[in-house]
Amino acid sequence: MIISAPKISVILPNYNYDQFLNQRIASILNQTYSNFELLILDDCSTDNSKAVIESFKDKRITVYYNDTNTGSPFPQWDKGIQLSKGDYIWIAEADDYCSDTMLEKLLKKLEESKSDVCFAESKVVNEHGVEKGLWCNLNIKGNNKSIFNTDFDMNGNEFIEKNLIFENAIPNASAVLFKKKSYIEAGGVDQNIPNCADWLLWIKILSNGRVAFVSEPLNAFRRHGESVINSIKKKEGNEDMFYEYYSLTMRLALKKWLINYKGKNVVHKINDRYILKDLSRKINWSKSNQSILENIKLSFQAFHISGFNPKYLLKPFL
């Protein structure tokens, strides 16, 4: 029996994913842990999403339709969380799906470890659901990769210093359960960052919290032609341009936030090092497309945003 106050709020942002919605919604409603609300936020889809959504009849579902498209999933995240009633949040992205036991196991681990964020290993699947391997095995590249072989929980700053500052080691929100209170205290998701605001959000939350990991692959992370990452790569047509767009945008925003960060100075230094690397990529790929004057203008704009001293940073490239 569902009690009046849900413990978990499931936020399902959708835009033109009608081909995946049946499986996504069913995988949520079939959870063994049932004390949740499901908030579906459709971002003005132009496909058959509305018909798919409204084919499900369940008292736990509330649907919100946008009149105009926001152009990013992150305003939908924040809108859903502001509307939510639960103590815990699960962002269930529309093109993914999961094990029936995912919520039950993540909630158990999160509460036992007294963590702010808990996430599970993900199976990487294509548009047809064919499994390609486990995310952490395929994609985590840092020296601390071995921790993902088993369950763990740890201090958030330690996880930032050993993993998150190097790469987004929590790559798929669909695999994550987190405390609503921690989200609010961290200032919420930065809606001005188009494609990696989740990465910054985890760092902000974990700078004052704990993180837990379940090594069982409870989530299915779908990589397909229209996924966010693949869409950016397709649009830019260049791997360096993709990394500049994805990583540099987040790291410049992170640099501003790090001004008040109380963790180790090594975090600042590593972030600065990656900014330099990404700016170098930016300058190199822009040389073939724009004048020298425009290259310098772009570089100085990026340096100004980051808070760096332009004279100091331009020296390696002059």
UniProtKB/TrEMBL annotation:
InterPro entries attached to this UniProt entry: Glyco_trans_2-like, Nucleotide-diphossugar_trans
Keywords, alphabetical: Transferase
Domain Glycosyltransferase 2-like: 9-133
GO MF assignments: hexosyltransferase activity
Record bears the keyword Transferase: yes
UniProt protein name: Glycosyltransferase
Organism: Formosa sediminum
